[in-house]
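Following up on my earlier message about 4-hydroxy-L-threonine-5-monophosphate. Here are the inputs again, as you asked, copied directly from the submission form:
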Amino acid sequence: MANNPVESLPIIAITSGEPAGIGPDIILSALNEQAFPARLIILADPQLLKDRASTLGLTVDTRTLSHSHEVSAHQQGMISVLPIQQAKQTIAGVLDIENAPYVLETLKQAGEGCLRKEFDAIVTPPVHKGILCETGVHFSGHTEFFQAQCKSPHVVMMLATEAMKVALVTTHLPLKDVSAAITEQSISLVINALNQDLQEKFGITKPKILVCGLNPHAGEDGHLGREEIDVIIPTLDKLRQEGLDLVSPLPADTLFTPKYLNDADCALAMYHDQGLPVLKYSGFGNAVNITLGLPIIRTSVDHGTAIDLAGTGKANNGSLKVAIQHAINMANNAKKFSK
Ligand SMILES: NC(=O)c1ccc[n+]([C@@H]2O[C@H](COP(=O)([O-])OP(=O)(O)OC[C@H]3O[C@@H](n4cnc5c(N)ncnc54)[C@H](O)[C@@H]3O)[C@@H](O)[C@H]2O)c1
Ligand SMILES: N[C@H](C(=O)O)[C@H](O)COP(=O)(O)O
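Thanks, got it. Here's what our run produced:
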């Protein structure tokens, strides 16, 4: 019923991530430390969560759901679980290839539930890409997984802190393949999707986007690489004529300084390790990873599986809390827009 405040709370699906990593730890500790203004459903094996809670010495009220509509408003110390069974009991810190299908199943069910509008958003704790790939599946990231599942023609990976937003033209690509992937089409698709979502999901009327060059010193007038002259500059010029506010391409080594960042809404890096180390240096543990360009809302943490910390109680849950809150905000905004 529309008047019921519980029914107006968004339903957020949270996957367990890699069971041997810190995903279960940070879910348990985050949901134990505060109440979130949402209905939270964990897609996981309840036994995994019970075992990890016991290892961490946490007392958690675990409720196993038989259907998502049974979920109630989140309360501190409570977790509602939609069960998906692991193939094998997990030992914290020990990757097991037999549980890789379980991890993929949690993602599949989260995406399907969102596409069916049973969930309003997905939050993903980290998965271990290597162990998933060892099964023979090519898994380069959640970004590409949900892109394929949603049949989205182009998506954008953007990580954000309070201080800065960094988006990427290419995502999980070997460095040797990056240059060939920097094309008029890829740059235009990413910038248009980024500009649109900065307007619609972040309420920025005319986003100002700083664009990195690809080469050192943005190519030094062609002496250190020609991608800027041949591809990036002409593409940005065309997009500017369509009304976009783009600065650029700037040398990446000095773009990430207050002089430029203070006056802009987002930085666009050409590849993963050009932009993300800066963002993670400035805000590791407090950043959110958002996939733009999907028909569903998906946020994630800014860190990996930290296998070394699983079950130790030393994993920081800050980024998960930020990712959950962002998903709630975006889901609430989406509901307002759809009215
Ligand atoms: N969202 C995701 O699914 C995601 C994100 C990044 C990396 N990964 C995957 O995670 C795996 C491991 O990657 P990695 O070793 O490069 O990065 P990592 O983030 O797991 O670990 C890097 C370092 O940061 C520490 N660390 C990470 N998260 C922490 C936290 N919450 N609290 C305290 N310390 C933390 C680790 O202990 C380690 O020292 C890889 O398979 C990678 O692909 C997944
Ligand atoms: N590129 C992300 C990072 O470094 O934090 C990470 O690999 C996660 O990517 P997906 O959200 O695509 O799994």
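One observation from looking it over: Residues 10 and 328 are 7 Å apart (CA to CA). Hope that helps, and feel free to reply on this thread.
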